[in-house]
Design brief:
alpha+beta, 3-stranded mixed sheet, 2 helices
């Protein structure tokens, strides 16, 4: 249901072993662009390939303004 909505923010949780900059450099998903689940899945695979995370997953939260937060 969130496909195509503008991304208002991207958040990371559990970055104990890598910097937020390193993690964000793996993403093609970007703030202000429309949410594309296929792209999010590719981003998750890239993060998994780093081998630094116990679990890699994405959650989406709808904001009042209609944009989404990807976490």
């Amino acid at each position: 249901p969130y496909e195509g909505r503008a991304i208002g923010e991207i958040r990371f949780r559990g970055l104990d072993r890598v910097s937020e900059r390193l993690a964000s450099n793996q993403l093609r998903t970007a703030v202000a662009r429309p949410l594309e689940w296929a792209l999010v899945r590719e981003d998750l695979r890239r993060l998994e390939r780093l081998g630094e995370f116990e679990r890699v997953e994405a959650q989406v939260e709808l904001r009042a303004d209609g944009s989404v937060v990807v976490e």
